[in-house]
Amino acid sequence: MRPRQQRMLAVTAVVVGIAIAATLVLRALDENMMYFFGPAEIAEGLAPQGEPFRLGGLVVEGSVQREPGSLEAIFDVTDNVATVTVSYTGVFPDLFKEGKGVIANGKLRDDGIFVAHEVLAKHDENYMSPEVAKMLEEKGHPAGVTTVIED
Length: 151
Fold this sequence. Notes:
By secondary structure, the protein is an alpha+beta fold. The protein has helices spanning 3-32, 39-43, 130-138; strands at 36-37, 53-59, 65-66, 72-78, 83-89, 101-108, 114-121.
């Protein structure tokens, strides 16, 4: 081989290597991304069926149901436009409360129930996840108010 052919072969090998590396990185990022949806978007059918995503909103007052001695719980999450029922098996975070903001990671079943494998609650009195706060503000929930008051 002449030196020119060797250089061309080396350049081609480097370009192919970079292309393979970029493809692997993009696929890994795509597999690890979790999209955020509110109850209204789920009701509109925008959320993927059977694919993991995040659901955020406010826990509806009086909706948490748990069998005594069981770790399985069912509760409703709302954005004041629509409501989604969530099924979760596990221990809730200490700050999980009805009327407060919550984010649940999981999948939507065919029957419309969101099966959560992780539930996250706000970490202090004044904090709400930016995604949930923005979604609630867009749905007409008063800014700065993190509870749902029902009479």
